[in-house]
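Forgive a beginner's question, but would it be possible to get any protein sequence you like and the tokens describing how it folds?
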Amino acid sequence: MKVYLVGSNDCEFTDTRYVCLSKETALKRWEEIRKELIERNIEVWKNFDNVMYARINKNLQETNPEKIDNYLHEEPFIYEMETEE
């Protein structure tokens, strides 16, 4: 049976928040996390006008989990795994 781990990670940590039984549910949870990261980024950087803020926001606009690339900064992920008996 396949499961999908969904969360966020950056260069220092991984935060797995969901274990989903379907790809559709995993995509919904991934999108929720992506939107949370965008909101957090806006809140953290709202008083700054710099290139890094713009780059992070641009990277987090990607809606395809396979194409998103925000490394070194936090980004959402989906990892597909096979369960063992």
Remarks:
- The longest strand covers residues 2-9.
